[in-house]
Design a protein that fits this description.
The protein is of the alpha/beta class and 325 residues long. It is 35% helix and 21% strand. It binds iron/sulfur cluster (SF4). This is Peptide ABC transporter ATPase.
């Protein structure tokens, strides 16, 4: 359904004219560095990494909310990066996003009913009565009250969980087929988080959705993702299923991420791997393997040679010289 190929996004760093003149070159934040992946229809791909790993930028590039520096995003045989404005506007019915912060995502002056109906107005779907009925139907599908009283409430009058359900209802009202969920449950309490994950799974079945599920929390991917891609400094360092990656992580960065997940079973021993130092800034990327300044397994060639993507099995890949012998 979706094929991302050699996607790159570099943001120019805002510096004073004098500084640029003195250094002689413009600087860039290398947010996404030549990544490729694909998602099959009905699948959920989890994009996992710390903040600053480039996963949110990737989600926005996939929907072309921002323009890529280079690379392509092909959705059902259409290259999204090459579409004109009108074709892109029409396609937005089919591809949607659920944002992390429901309070910021909702207009504080727009009532719930109007907010959920808004995409139908934009795309000219249905008449007034049909739109009203579609909103009622969608509210009940996301387990909100389909009543005129609830219709008239403002976002500030709702709990965090209710607000995120409204955001989900608004994203799904045009019956999209592909949804980017960007840290969709990260800001909610743990108990509400599991309800929302259950809801997203239920809606996936009902509407035959395909998700790109962006999260910093590897444990969350267990419940919802068929496949995981681990990101570090704008590159994908490992892919595989949750079971494969969680039980036997291959990349040292993935090992570190997993060792940071609290283990409820005290008898289960996990290798503790704490990487050295901090994540380097994305303006001056390390040479060779981007993880080499922090990697406990670093070898000489890691400093100079970028590791190739190595296929470990039909379902797994890793970018690390440890597997390239
Ligand atoms: Fe560590 Fe080298 Fe593998 Fe990079 S390529 S993760 S530095 S062992």
């Amino acid at each position: 359904m979706l094929e991302v190929k050699n996607l790159v996004k570099h943001f120019p760093v805002r510096e004073s004219f004098v500084k640029t003149l003195l250094t002689g070159k413009k600087k860039f934040v290398h947010a996404v560095n030549n990544i490729s992946f694909n998602i099959k229809e009905g699948q959920t791909l989890g994009l996992v990494g710390e903040s600053g790993s480039g996963k949110t930028t990737t989600g926005r590039l996939v929907l072309r909310l921002i323009e890529p520096t280079s690379g392509s995003v092909v959705y059902r045989k259409k290259d999204i990066t090459a579409l004109d404005r009108e074709s892109l506007r029409k396609l937005r019915k089919e591809i949607q996003i659920i944002f992390q912060d429901p309070l910021a995502a909702l207009n504080p002056y727009m009532k719930v009913g109007d907010a959920v109906r808004h995409p139908l107005d934009i795309h000219g779907i249905g008449n007034k009565k049909e739109r009203h009925d579609m909103v009622l139907d969608m509210l009940s599908r996301v387990n909100l009250e389909p009543t005129s009283d609830f219709f008239k409430r403002y976002p500030r009058e709702l709990s965090g969980g209710q607000r995120q359900r409204v955001v989900i209802a608004r994203a799904l009202i045009t019956r999209p087929k592909f949804v980017v969920a960007d840290e969709a449950v990260a800001m909610l309490d743990v108990s509400v988080r599991s309800q929302l994950l259950d809801l997203m799974l239920k809606l996936k079945e009902e509407f035959n959705l395909t998700y790109l599920f962006i999260t910093h929390d590897l444990a969350t991917t267990k419940y919802i993702c068929d496949k995981i891609a681990v990101m570090y400094l704008g590159t994908i360092v490992e892919t595989g299923s949750f079971e494969e990656i969680y039980k036997e992580p291959a990349h040292p960065y993935t090992k570190a991420l997993i060792s940071a997940v609290p283990e409820p079973d005290p008898d289960l021993k996990k290798e503790k791997l704490i990487p050295k130092g901090e994540v380097p800034n994305a303006v001056e990327l390390p040479s060779g393997c981007f993880f080499h300044p922090r990697c406990p397994y670093m070898m000489d060639k890691c400093k100079t040679e970028e590791p190739p993507e190595i296929k470990l099995s039909e379902t797994r890949t890793v970018k690390c010289h440890l597997f390239n012998r």
